[in-house]
Amino acid sequence: GQQLNQSPQSMFIQEGEDVSMNCTSSSIFNTWLWYKQDPGEGPVLLIALYKAGELTSNGRLTAQFGITRKDSFLNISASIPSDVGIYFCAGFNQAGTALIFGKGTTLSVSS
Amino acid sequence: EAGVAQSPRYKIIEKRQSVAFWCNPISGHATLYWYQQILGQGPKLLIQFQNNGVVDDSQLPKDRFSAERLKGVDSTLKIQPAKLEDSAVYLCASSLTRQETQYFGPGTRLLVL
């Protein structure tokens, strides 16, 4: 079945540093979504990408939909302590009916 | 606007017992989803409702899991009997339509001993 592979699995950075994480698949996805999950909460949508090559920003976050439609990356600039959490990429299955999630990248920020 | 509500937030049971979770989606959202999130994994879809009809339950272990959304609003997910491997967070999400953004509730954390 379709799978999403996220890397790195975890990151430990200093406040103020930039962060980059990515998501790859052997299958083509027509939509890429990036979610953040805080401890004890459900995932919250950060950015949605709908077209190959699309580059979208949301504040300090920037995400891109890969040209091959098999990958996406998320960048966070000038990290702050509240960026701590688990970041998931997700895409719709081939039928377009269900979201498939990656295993997540856990981000830790030290001040 | 109120978000997706779930209860209980935590539940501890012994294996072979039964448990039920409740979800109240965002008002007006036609589509409701139940996900299972095992520690260290991303959410995995269990079942999807469009109003009170099931759209996709292909990943629901139907021998022990059941879900309903009788009036097209609230939903319950039941496990009977529970196994150790059912220990996970059960997330409910809702969206206006199947193509719209999904909004997640805080989840119910289940521990099966």
Tell me the fraction of residues in β-strands of chain A, as a range: over 45%
What is the quaternary state of this protein? heterodimer
Most strands sheet of chain B: 7 strands, mixed
Structural class of chain B: mainly beta
Shape of chain A: globular
Terminus-to-terminus distance of chain A: 41 Å
Strand composition percent of chain B: over 45%
Summarize the structure.
The complex is a heterodimer of chains A (111) and B (113). Chain A is built from no helices and 11 strands.
How would you describe this structure in keywords?
heterodimer; A: 111 residues; mainly beta; six-stranded mixed beta sheet; five-stranded antiparallel beta sheet; B: 113 residues; 49% strand
Characterise this structure.
The complex is a heterodimer of chains A (111) and B (113). With 111 residues, chain A is mainly β. In chain A, 0% of the residues lie in helices and 52% in strands. Chain A is built from no helices and eleven strands. In chain A, strands 2, 4, 5, 9, 10 and 11 form a six-stranded mixed β-sheet that branches. Chain A has a five-stranded antiparallel β-sheet with strand order 1-3-8-7-6, with no helix packed on it. Chain A is globular, with a radius of gyration of 13 Å. The relative contact order of chain A is 0.33. Chain B has 113 residues and is an all-beta fold. Helix content of chain B is 0%, strand content 49%. Chain B is built from no helices and eleven strands. In chain B, strands 2, 4, 5, 6, 9, 10 and 11 form a seven-stranded mixed β-sheet that branches. The relative contact order of chain B is 0.33. Classes of the chains: A mainly beta (111), B mainly beta (113). Chains A and B meet through strand 5 of A and strand 5 and strand 10 of B.
Chain-wise SSE layout:
The complex is a heterodimer of chains A (111) and B (113).
Chain A: E1 5-7, E2 10-14, E3 19-24, E4 32-37, E5 44-49, E6 55-58, E7 61-65, E8 71-76, E9 85-92, E10 99-101, E11 105-110
Parallel strand pairs in A: 2-11
Antiparallel strand pairs in A: 1-3, 3-8, 4-5, 4-9, 6-7, 7-8, 9-10, 9-11
Chain B: E1 5-7, E2 10-13, E3 19-24, E4 31-37, E5 44-50, E6 53-56, E7 65-68, E8 75-79, E9 88-95, E10 103-104, E11 108-112
Parallel strand pairs in B: 2-11
Antiparallel strand pairs in B: 1-3, 3-8, 4-5, 4-9, 5-6, 7-8, 9-10, 9-11
